[in-house]
């Protein structure tokens, strides 16, 4: 999938939201993950491991591939039937028992060690989404939604907020629960004509809250629909463009803004109250599932317009640091376990890539004066907050924002999050089957999808091909037969 990430410069700082789209991938590459181990953390951090949390990473090792710390009589690596920590003990497939009925905990050191180590693997470019393009613009409120949230930037109608946007790409691995995403990827929707013609989706479920009042909240998903019209390449045309002009999308975005043809996206929200969330068929915290529009309709509330190109790409885009943990007041993360893992990983990546004081870089600095407890570190260049103490003190007391917290929904939340990590169920294939029928209503789209899959899958080993046939057949028997016949014809 290829997300574009939107940062909103609110008075409190920067709020980030990753919006998913996609580019074509290779089933051969993603069907044997142990052979491409160096690429796997990219998929984990960018939410494309089956749409599930990195907690399930060790499932990729169940075929017996692993590593053992070298000893005096051992080679540097050798085959192992169990995944182990870097100290040596085996790792359980399950969450720690203490966390099964509650939220993600720091005591799950397998996850924390994995993410912390991953964040330091490569320098100096971004660990994920290394190649991309970006621009500046503004968000304008077009509809009143003040009854849903107290977010300052969303009221009143007509209010404008400056934004920075970056577009990028990433990879995906195969787990059956991600088949709906795989089908988006390998359809023509997976090769957008340009950034300007690409829709965006938050993917994650967030909470809009009213902390200053009663702490009530609603669950939301954000959609950005391109006002230029959705437009895609076929696989063949995308391959040709990649060879002739690999930076086509970047150039198209830059040149359009430069001549005043400003791209824009209408912003919509899907809203569920806690009670409605409990009654929805789909698990709202499961990243592999969408909320059907017929059940949860889209509500327009704003527009994003990009109207200014960057002047220095390194200073303004390469050093631009996004994180879903940095949210403006009125927005909170949900219990989505993949989102919870990213709350740690993204800022930790920025500290590694840009330094401990990456928030002081001009493009990341908040517009409002801040008063944190962080001090010192490399490149502390803003006066280090002078003589102010880095702890709550009696001689310079601090004021804290008063908020109300609603906790009545938490027991249901804990149970639903735990359910995500169960076995694959028939309903995991239902939305993929529905997408197959949607493609059937668009001339040539089913044929293009089958051809795109077969042209990649035909080079894989026989056992890999037949696992893919089984996966598609579980979504739709006719689809499975078409993929099998086309793939076997090309593999001869």
UniProtKB/TrEMBL annotation:
GO terms for cellular component: mitochondrion; peroxisome. It comes from the Eukaryota. InterPro entries: Catalase (IPR018028), Catalase_AS (IPR024708), Catalase_core (IPR011614), Catalase_haem_BS (IPR002226), Catalase_immune_responsive (IPR010582), Catalase_sf (IPR020835). Its EC number is 1.11.1.6. The keyword Oxidoreductase applies. It catalyses: 2 H2O2 = O2 + 2 H2O. Gene3D superfamilies: Catalase core domain. GO terms for molecular function: catalase activity; heme binding; metal ion binding. Coiled coil: none annotated. Keywords: Heme, Hydrogen peroxide, Iron, Metal-binding, Oxidoreductase, Peroxidase. Residues 71-94 are annotated as: Disordered. Residues 84-399 form the Catalase core domain. GO terms for biological process: hydrogen peroxide catabolic process; response to hydrogen peroxide. Catalyzes the degradation of hydrogen peroxide (H(2)O(2)) generated by peroxisomal oxidases to water and oxygen, thereby protecting cells from the toxic effects of hydrogen peroxide. Belongs to the catalase family. This is Catalase. The lineage of its organism: Eukaryota, Fungi, Dikarya, Ascomycota, Pezizomycotina.
């Amino acid at each position: 999938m290829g997300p574009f990430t939107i940062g909103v410069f609110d008075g409190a700082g920067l709020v980030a939201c990753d919006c998913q789209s996609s580019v074509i991938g290779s089933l051969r590459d993603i069907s044997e993950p142990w052979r491409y181990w160096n690429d796997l953390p990219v998929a984990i951090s960018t939410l494309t491991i089956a749409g599930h949390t990195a907690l399930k990473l060790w499932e990729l090792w169940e075929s017996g591939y692993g590593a053992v710390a070298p000893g005096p009589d051992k080679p540097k690596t050798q085959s192992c039937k169990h995944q182990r920590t870097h100290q040596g003990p085996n790792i359980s497939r399950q969450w720690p028992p203490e966390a099964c009925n509650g939220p993600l905990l720091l005591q799950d050191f397998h996850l924390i060690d994995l993410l912390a180590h991953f964040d330091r693997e490569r320098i100096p470019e971004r660990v994920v989404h290394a190649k991309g393009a970006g621009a500046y613009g503004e968000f304008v409120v077009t509809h009143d939604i003040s009854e849903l949230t107290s977010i300052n930037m969303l009221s009143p109608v007509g209010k404008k907020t400056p934004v920075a946007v970056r577009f990028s790409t990433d990879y995906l691995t195969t787990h059956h629960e991600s088949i709906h995403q795989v089908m988006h990827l390998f359809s023509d929707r997976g090769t957008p004509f340009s950034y300007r013609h690409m829709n965006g989706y938050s993917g994650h479920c967030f909470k809009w809250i009213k902390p200053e009042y009663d702490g009530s909240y609603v669950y939301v998903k954000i959609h950005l629909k391109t006002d230029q019209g959705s437009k895609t390449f076929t696989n063949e045309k995308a391959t040709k463009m990649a060879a002739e002009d690999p930076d086509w999308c970047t150039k198209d975005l830059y040149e359009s803004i430069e001549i005043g043809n400003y791209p824009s996206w209408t912003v919509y929200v899907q809203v569920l109250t806690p009670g409605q969330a409990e009654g929805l068929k789909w698990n709202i915290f499961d990243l592999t599932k969408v909320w059907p529009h017929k059940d949860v309709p889209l509500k327009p509330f704003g527009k994003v317009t990009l109207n200014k190109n960057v002047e220095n790409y390194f200073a303004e885009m390469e050093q631009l640091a996004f994180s879903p943990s940095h949210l403006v007041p009125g927005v909170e993360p949900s219990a989505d376990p993949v989102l919870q893992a990213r709350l740690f990983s993204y800022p930790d990546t920025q500290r590694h890539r840009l330094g401990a004081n990456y928030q002081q870089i001009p493009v990341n600095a908040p517009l409002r004066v801040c008063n944190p407890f962080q001090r010192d570190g490399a490149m502390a260049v803003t006066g280090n907050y002078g003589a102010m103490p880095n702890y709550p003190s009696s001689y310079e007391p601090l004021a804290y924002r008063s908020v109300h917290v609603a906790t009545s929904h938490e027991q249901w939340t804990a149970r639903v999050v735990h359910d995500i990590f169960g076995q694959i169920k028939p309903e995991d294939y239902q939305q993929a089957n529905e997408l197959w029928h949607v493609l059937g209503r668009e001339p040539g789209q089913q044929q293009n999808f089958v051809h795109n899959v077969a042209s990649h899958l035909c080079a894989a080993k026989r056992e890999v091909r037949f696992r893919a046939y089984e996966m598609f057949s579980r979504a739709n028997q006719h689809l499975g037969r078409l993929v099998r016949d086309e793939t076997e014809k090309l593999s001869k």
